[in-house]
């Protein structure tokens, strides 16, 4: 976009409006800004409506964001208070990535009661992690070797059970003046699979959030390739925060990043938002995916079923750890759980750190599908 200081003062407001639109994720190219200013010049303008028509014609807001464009126009040029845009907070799942965050913002923690029930209403709040947890050092040290492995395309030298390393073998033959030494072998390396944690931070999971984030920090510290996201009414990537070695500092940074602590639950839309970002969905390809949630999806669970089906197709192993399974009387009886049960490899107890660490360390061992196990229990 053109530099504001090189423009006449009368043109500054129009450049400022274009910058405002770009700040709110409107696709505005520099050429469009130039055309906007030229259109205003050609029109006079004789009224604010001329400026509005020039903006609509040149900046070309998409039809589904026309009302939002009008609200920004009136707020910027008329000084009106910007009205809330219907549907923005209720229908759209916001995605927040912690990549490139440089500063921590101090937030005041809200003390909220409840968390007993799940809802779809968004409630933004912060969280303070100050309590110490038992050391997860043993889990962290064992994690990398305990994860399921895959065969890499990279190879390493081996003395047995490999394939002929033709290049090195020919080099040895040349070095030995034609003598045929013992054949040299190479074997494809085995590398740990990625581990992806998706953590529910809604109100119904309030009692378990601190334990889950503590476990996630140990996972990021112990695994070579791990990714962690939180979801409630929004989706937030917190992997970079958890790479800080000091646990208290890491959890404080994560607490500052997440805006939707202890709010409602939009599990289906949040997972679809995760899959819609190609860089994020790549994390799930061939990974062991563990979702830490009670899966209490309110209303229609079609989005949840669609998201789980797509995740299942990408992941090496898809698991749901729910604290509800800590109760011996638990059965996957809700409509949402019945719908996604055939798509899960595991439906396990997520009520304690101990049960979760034991399960994660067992991911490399084969197990019957979740549907098979719970049909036996029922």
Automatic annotation (TrEMBL):
<dbReference type="InterPro" id="IPR011195">
    <property type="entry name" value="UCP010256"/>
</dbReference>
<feature type="compositionally biased region" description="Basic and acidic residues">
    <location>
        <begin position="93"/>
        <end position="115"/>
    </location>
</feature>
<dbReference type="Pfam" id="PF05762">
    <property type="entry name" value="VWA_CoxE"/>
</dbReference>
<protein>
    <submittedName>
        <fullName>VWA domain-containing protein</fullName>
    </submittedName>
</protein>
<dbReference type="InterPro" id="IPR008912">
    <property type="entry name" value="Uncharacterised_CoxE"/>
</dbReference>
<dbReference type="InterPro" id="IPR036465">
    <property type="entry name" value="vWFA_dom_sf"/>
</dbReference>
<feature type="region of interest" description="Disordered">
    <location>
        <begin position="84"/>
        <end position="133"/>
    </location>
</feature>
